Amino acid sequence: MGQSLTIKNNYVSAPSAPVQHDRDPVAMLFHWAETRPKSIYLRQPINSVWREYTWAEVADQVRRMAAALQALGLKPGETVALTGKNTAHWVMADLAVGMAVGISVGIYPNQAAETTRYVLEHSETKFLFFGPLMDAPQLAEGIPESVKTIGLPYPEVPETDHGWDALIKEHAPLQDWEPNDPDSVHTMIYTSGTTGNPKGVMLSTRSARETMGGVINRLEFRDDERFFSYLPLAHIFERGVVELCSLYVGAEISFMESLDKLASQLAEVAPTRFYGVPVVYGRIQSGILEKLPQKKMDRLLRIPILSGLIRKKVISGLGLQNARMVVSGAAPMPEAMISWFAKLGVTICQGYGMSENSAYCTTNTPAENRIGSVGRPMPGVEIKIDDQTEEVLARSAATMLGYYKNEEKTAETMTDGWLHTGDKGRIDKDGFLYITGRIKDAFKTSKGKYVDPAPIEDKLATDGAIDQICLIGSGMKLPVGIVRIDSEDPDADIAKRLAGKVETLNKTLEPHERVSKLFLTREEWSVEDGLITPTMKIKRPQLEDRYRDQVEAMLGHDDKVVWF
Asked: Structural domain boundaries of the chain?
């Protein structure tokens, strides 16, 4: 393997990267504005027409907005929130907050009003940058009267206390600026909260510097990188791999205008790096299979003269023909799905991290990609597995300062610099990490046996009709699966196919793990109804509560697979 690692029993570490940065993100913006002022940095589509902003233009607007924030009364260390779809001005606003020595907080654009209110009040937010939203009135209900709003310059944005363009015109660029203390809080990422209220993860400027030094060293960025931004910037994954990376490598970012234009605009941009989450890749897979059914695809791929053409057509149709690296993160990706894309010539590199360590932990690379694993440690990262609980512990300079206003939870989560991830895992002889489950997801059946749902879910999720799956079974004789279906196949065909899959799978499981039934639904699971997080992770307790009565009423059904 190309990476030099220290590997011991249940322990692996990677040496620190030789490339380290002594500049914070704002300083990197000014660096590119000076060295390549006329190069395009941000590309924003409006009604399918691209508006382009150079590094110099972005730097000028950031300086002006930083001056405006200070004039409005923002003091160093105070909090400014940002919400709305990913846009060029979301990034500009984030940088302006940093230049004004404030602390930025991202608000998911589709989260419930009560969650928004909790985050804004808990973080003591002074100002909120308000961008375009699918449901602006819903989010507005969660904004306390004490928070002053600044509207980003887009047609869909409702009336706010201040407007971006007006503030830019009224204030001269801020010149007198000194970088913040590298060990002070740079941003707060509120966890998506699969259980309980979101927690404010405090990240320092030093963590940004350290992570970017390691990322550049490990992933071999070039000077012509193009990113496509569509995952929420409020989440650490997109903030790190797109916004921060763009600043430290000088990359261009193009934004998605709307979900219905994702495919066309992705193909138009043809990024050099593409980042997704499992549910996105699952929907891409479904879209391909609708046009090219599996049996026909398999037949064509077996013909040498056609296989290369088919792969090329699929990859270019997706807009991935220039992608040097295709990454999946934020949630576990089924091994079968990674293998499916590999047959089409798309190498998906799965990585691992969380808000608490700046999403900087492990990753596969195109050169070192072990399917089923989440890769090897990033530079400067140590990983060990707890001998008793099998919990993954991680330690690096990217680890959070702690949870805001929650010393008890901070002490529970961090021990001697080691972050307790809550995930179960193992390390192989070559230093690759495998996530084998979630400690808190395990449930006890009525017979007193524990079941870890994640491995079983991964094996069932290989069917293309399955969009999302959640295995439950606390207090039951045997586990059952609740499955969200996204397919135009007839109900009967899907049920028959999945019944066969369950029967085959059960032969490989321990008696207490065997799936007694699958309950299928075409009902959407959304952030708004509280069933999934903004990063598309299932909220298990909420989903179980939602379907509990239906499940109990239909447990006596003879069929192995039942439609709600």
From this structure: 6-12+251-439, 25-179, 442-563
